[in-house]
Structure formats: C-alpha cells, structure tokens
DNA sequence: CGAGTGACGGACG
DNA sequence: CCGTCCGCCACTC
C-alpha cells in the first residue's frame, strides 16, 4: 500500500511541475524531476508524459531532453507549438527558449 | 523474480 | 554524431 501511495505522490508532484510551465518556457525531463524533488529520475518524467491522457491538460511540448531534442514522432506538432510561443527550433532541436531552465 | 523496454542522462570511445 | 554501459523508475512478460 505504502509503495503505491509513494508512486502516486511522485506522479502528482511531477505533473504539477509540468503544469506550471508557461508560454515560451522550455524545460528538460531531468530538471522537472529535480524541481519535483526527485533528482536523477528523468525517466520517470518521460514515462508519465508518455502514458498521460491527451486531455490531461499538460503542456508536453515545453519539455525536451537535455540536448534540446524534440519528442520523437511529434517534432512537427511540437515545433509548431513552440515557435508560436517565440521559441527558436531548428532541426528538431530547441535552439533558444524564451524562458525556462533549458540552456543549449 | 529476472529481462526487456521507454518522450532520460551522463560518462566513454 | 553514433553506439555502448550504467543508473534511475514503472511496467510488461
């Protein structure tokens, strides 16, 4: 029982951090995990986003990996959404965000 | 219970 | 830039 609660807690905190991302703000999986209080657990963030419902109200397009690489299979959609917020994207990578922790 | 997998990351070659 | 290892969590077989 304890385990399930902890896992749910982690998921909840991470989702909250992602929801807090604003326009033009780009952050990495690793930073989200760290901000949520679970450093080094970037895979957990990726898993949560990958299994999240489409109507989960999560700005997934503002999350990229440490190299700035866009989500495999969603580059078109993601780059369009990011560019609409003023984020510079090139060759499937975020070159420069308006806000956020991501730094090339 | 162990191996494999994944929208990850960092160290190495 | 690519591939390999290892570490991390959750989940499937």
The strand order across the widest sheet is: 1-2
Structural class by SSE content: alpha+beta
Largest sheet report: 2 strands, parallel
- What portion of residues is helical? 40-55%
SSE series: HEHHEHEE
End-to-end gap:
41 Å
Mean pLDDT: 93
Low-pLDDT residue intervals, each spanning 5 or more residues: none
How big a fraction of the residues is strand?
A: 5-15%
Rough outline: globular
Write up what this structure looks like:
With 104 residues, this protein is an alpha+beta fold. It is 42% helix and 11% strand. The protein contains four helices and four strands, in the order αβααβαββ. The strands form two sheets. A two-stranded parallel sheet has the order 1-2. The longest helix is centred in the first third of the chain and has 18 residues, at 2-19. It is globular and about 45 Å long. The termini are far apart. The relative contact order is 0.19. The mean pLDDT is 93. It binds a DNA duplex (13 and 13 nucleotides) through residues 7, 10, 28-30, 33, 38, 40-51, 60, 63-67, 69-74.
List keywords for this structure.
two-stranded antiparallel ribbon, globular, DNA-binding, 42% helix, 104 residues
What is shown here, in short?
With 104 residues, this protein is of the alpha+beta class. It has four helices and four strands; from the N terminus they run αβααβαββ. 42% of the residues lie in helices and 11% in strands.
Task: Summarize the topology.
Layout lengths: L1 H18 L7 E2 H7 L6 H10 L11 E2 L10 H9 L4 E3 L2 E4 L8
Parallel strand pairs: 1-2
Antiparallel strand pairs: 3-4
Helix pairs in contact: 2-3
This protein binds a DNA duplex (13 and 13 nucleotides) through helix 2, helix 3 and strand 2.
């Amino acid at each position: 029982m304890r385990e399930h609660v902890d896992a749910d807690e982690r998921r909840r905190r991470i989702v909250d951090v992602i929801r807090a991302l604003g326009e033009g703000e780009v952050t990495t999986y690793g930073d989200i995990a760290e901000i949520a209080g679970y450093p080094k657990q970037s895979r957990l963030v990726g898993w949560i986003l990958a299994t999240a419902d489409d109507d989960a109200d999560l700005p997934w397009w503002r999350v990229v990996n440490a190299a700035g690489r866009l989500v495999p299979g969603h580059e078109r959609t993601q780059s369009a959404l990011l560019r609409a917020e003023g984020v510079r994207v090139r060759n499937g990578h975020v070159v420069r965000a308006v806000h956020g922790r991501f730094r090339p």
